[in-house]
User: Fold these one by one.
Assistant:
Number 1:
Amino acid sequence: MRQTCGYKGPLPYWDFAETAASGLTNSVVFDGSEYSLSGNGVASGNAPIALGPSLVVPHGSGGGCITSGPFKDWVQTLGYIDPLFLISGQPLPANAYNYNASCITRDLNQYVANTWTNLTDVLNTVASPDAASLEYNLNGVIGGSSLGIHSAGHFTIGGFMDSIHVSSSLIRF
C-alpha cells in the first residue's frame, strides 16, 4: 500500500468492536463508498444458518450480490462449499475446485457482530489467561455453541465468507 498508493498511515485493521457498537451499515468499512470494503448485498431473506447441532445464527440483512463500493464488479471463481464439511469428516465434493464464476455476495450480520465481536469479547480475548482460553476466545468451537471473534468476523460479513474457500478466489473483470 505504501508503494502502490503512497499510504503513510499505520497498519490498517478492522475494529470489530467499533463496528459492532456503531452498526455495520453505519460503518465506513461497509458503507459502499470508494474506500470501503463495499456495501451489503441485495436483501435475500435467507433462512437461518445452522453451524452445528447447538449453534444456529440468523442470516443478516443482505445475502445477495454486492451492488456498491470497490468490490461490486468482482467475481468469485469457486463455488460455495458449506463449512460443515470441515467437521463432518466427509470428503469434499468432486467439483470442489471447479471454476464456478458468480458475483461476490455479502450478508452483513449485526446479530453475529453484537454476540461475538463486541468490546467485551475482544477485551476478554486480549486478556486470555492461557493458550487454551486464547484459542477458544479467538475461534470458538467448530460445530459448538460459540464462534469466537475470528470465526464471527467471517460470519459478520456473510455471503461467500462462510464457505471453506473464504475470499481467496476473487478476480476482477
Note: Strands lie at 41-43, 49-52, 55-57, 63-66, 74-78, 99-103, 170-172.
Number 2:
Amino acid sequence: MPKQKFKRVLLKISGESLKSNECSSGIDFKIMSRIALEIKEASESGVEIAIVIGGGNFWRGATASELGMERAAADYIGMISTVMNAVALQDALEKKGATTRVLSAITMQEIAEPFIRRRAVRHLEKKRVVIFAGGTGNPYFSTDTAAALRALEINAEIIFKATKVDGVYDKDPLKYKDAVKYKELTYLDVIKNGLKVLDSTATTLCMDNNLPIVVFDITKHGNIKNSLLGEKIGTLISRG
C-alpha cells in the first residue's frame, strides 16, 4: 500500500466524471460506486477527506448563459445540480460503510447541513467524509473556485482535481496526438499559457496561498485512492 503522505486533503470531482460516455447527462451509478469505494478506502487509512463536487453532468451555467439565460439564474441552477450530486455521492459512500456529511452553501436544511467552517473541520476531525455542495453560494464563481476556497478554509494540505485526462497537457490530448503531458507546472505557467486546468480565480487563490494542486485521471481504477495516499500520479501544480 502507498505510504500515507497527507493528513487532510480536498478532492474536487467534476460532475462530468460521474456520467458514462454513452449518456449525455445524469449519473452512472457504477462509476459512482467505484469512486465511493476508493474514497472510503483512502479514508480508512486515516487521511481526512473533504470533497467539492460539480454539477456539469446535469447543468452548465456558463453554457445556459451563452444561450441567452440570465447568468446569475443559470449559475443558481448549477449550484442546485451540485447538491443533487452530493446527495447521490453521500448515498454511495454510506452504502460502502463510510460516515459522511453534506454541507451546502445554499440552505437546504432538509437534506444538507449549512456550510459552517468550524463544523466542517470538526466533522473531518471525527473522520467523516465531508461533501461540500452548492459551490460558493454565489453566481459567477465556479466549483473550481469553491474547491480552492473550501480547501483553504479547512486547512487542507493539497487539492486533488479529478478529471477524465491523466494530467495537464500543452493542448487537448483528445484532439491532438502530439500533445505533451507536464509532470509539474507552476501556477504562473498555468496562467501565462492559458492552460484550462482551473479557472483563473481558483489558480490565483491557490498561488497566493501556496496551495498545491494535483490533476489526475479519475477513470483509471485505483487512482483516487493512490493519489490521496500520496502516490505521484498526474500533474503537480505548485510554486515550483
Note: The first helix runs from residue 29 to 44.
Number 3:
Amino acid sequence: MNAATMLRHLHLYASALAAACFIATMAFAQEPAAPTAPRDAPRYQPAAPDAVPEATPEATPEADRTAQPTDAGPLAPLEWLAGCWRGTVNQREFREHWLPLRGGMLIGAGQQVSRGRMQDYEYLRIEPRADGVVFSQFSGDRKETTFKLASTTIEDKDTIFTFANVADAFPARLVYRRGADGWLYETIDGTLDGKERRVIYPLRRIDCESGELILK
C-alpha cells in the first residue's frame, strides 16, 4: 500500500469515528431525565389508623343506667323484690328471681325442687291495672291465678303486702312480708276441702350468681 492510499484510509476512518461519536452524543441528550421530587414536596408518611373517639359519659353503661327514668307509680313500694331469693325447708328448696321494675311491671320466676327433682315452677307478674295492683302467677301445666293487692300494712319493722284471690279458690290470699336482714316471708292461706290451710315459705335474699346471702 502506497502512502496516498494509506492516507485516504486514515481519513475515512477518522470521518466514521467522528460520525459515531456525534450519534451517541445526540442519543444521550434525547433520553428523558429521571423524575426528581420537588424540594418542597412532603416526605412519605404512613397513614395513621382511624382515631377511636373517646367514650363520653353519655355513652358509658353507668351513665345509661342513671339516665333511665325511674319507674314510679303504684309498684314503687314493691321495687325491693328485684333480685334472687332462696329458702329451704325439709330438703325442699324454693327460689324466686325477680327482674328490676321496668316499663311499669315486675316480672319474675319461681322454682321448687325436692331432693334434686323438680316439683313445681311458675312465672310471676305484678302490674297496675285499672282496678288496682294485680299479682299473676302461672306455670305450663295450669291456668293463671290472679290476686289483687288488698292492703299494705306495717308491723314492727316489717312491711306486709296482702293479695286476695279474685276467684273463690285456694289459696284465698297470698302474702309477701318484707322482713329485716334480707328476709322475705311468703304465705298462702285459705280454705281447702273444708279446712283452713296456711303455708309459710321463708326466703333469704341471695347473690344471683354466687348464692351468698345478702343482708339488706
Note: The chain has two helices and ten strands.
